[in-house]
């Protein structure tokens, strides 16, 4: 039920991420990449336990965040082999429309930088800390650039 609602909202709302728990939408995002999922983790913390997520793209990085937050089920329009492996290892049910070997960057030229960042992470908490740190430092850089423009 929760996953079906999340999938429907993902499509109807032209969204990139929808998180549903107990029949209610907790979080929606149009942000691309890992930012939306990381925002949800920061905002809801343990409140995400047992929730369902529908995401456009789930690679290893997103799957690690889902495992860290202990989601019960995940749907992806596009899922990587690495993402599927992480979900399996963490006993998270999943569905996907397209399974791909890896998630690529925006230019489709190389592996996504977030995937590279967590490639060697041994557990979801470690991956979460790396991703959070990376996003925070990039936001600080963006802020500094905006102040000098």
What does this molecule look like?
It is a single chain. The protein has 149 residues and is of the alpha/beta class. The protein has one domain (2-148): Cytidine Deaminase, domain 2 (3-Layer(aba) Sandwich), CATH 3.40.140. The chain contains 6 helices and 5 strands. It has a 5-stranded mixed beta sheet with strand order 2-1-3-4-5. α3 crosses α6 (124-148). The radius of gyration is 15 Å and the shape is globular.
Features:
single chain, 149 residues, alpha/beta, five-stranded mixed sheet
Question: Helices and strands in order, then pairings?
Answer:
Blueprint: H1 2-12, E1 17-21, E2 24-29, H2 35-44, E3 52-58, H3 60-68, E4 73-80, H4 81-89, E5 93-100, H5 113-118, H6 124-148
Parallel strand pairs: 3-4, 4-5
Antiparallel strand pairs: 1-2, 1-3
Helix pairs in contact: 3-4, 3-6
Shape: globular
Oligomer type:
single chain
CATH superfamily heading: Hypothetical protein TM1506
Neighbour order of strands in the largest sheet: 2-1-3-4-5
Under the CATH scheme, the architecture is: 3-Layer(aba) Sandwich
CATH topology assignment: Cytidine Deaminase, domain 2
Largest sheet: 5 strands, mixed
Provide the helix percentage.
40-55%
Q: How many H/I helical runs? A: 6
Span from first to last CA? 48 Å
Low-pLDDT segments: none
Structural class: alpha/beta
Beta-strand residue fraction = 15-25%
Radius of gyration: 15 Å
Mean pLDDT: 93
| Beta strands, count | 5
What's the number of structural domains?
1
Run of helices and strands:
HEEHEHEHEHH
So what's the CATH class?
A: Alpha Beta
């Amino acid at each position: 039920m929760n996953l079906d609602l999340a999938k429907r909202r993902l499509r109807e709302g032209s969204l990139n991420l929808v998180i549903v728990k107990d029949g209610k939408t907790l979080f929606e995002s149009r942000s691309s990449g890992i930012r939306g999922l990381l925002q949800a983790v920061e905002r809801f913390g343990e409140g995400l336990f047992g929730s369902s997520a529908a995401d456009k793209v789930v690679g290893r990085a997103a799957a690690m965040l889902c495992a860290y937050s202990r989601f019960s089920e995940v749907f992806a329009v596009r899922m990587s082999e690495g993402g599927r492996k992480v979900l399996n290892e963490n006993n998270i049910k999943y569905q996907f429309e397209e399974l791909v070997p890896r998630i690529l960057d925006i230019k489709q030229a190389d592996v996504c930088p977030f995937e590279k960042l967590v490639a060697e992470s041994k557990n979801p908490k470690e991956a979460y800390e790396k991703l959070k740190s990376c996003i925070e430092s990039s936001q600080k850089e963006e802020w500094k650039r905006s102040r000098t423009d």
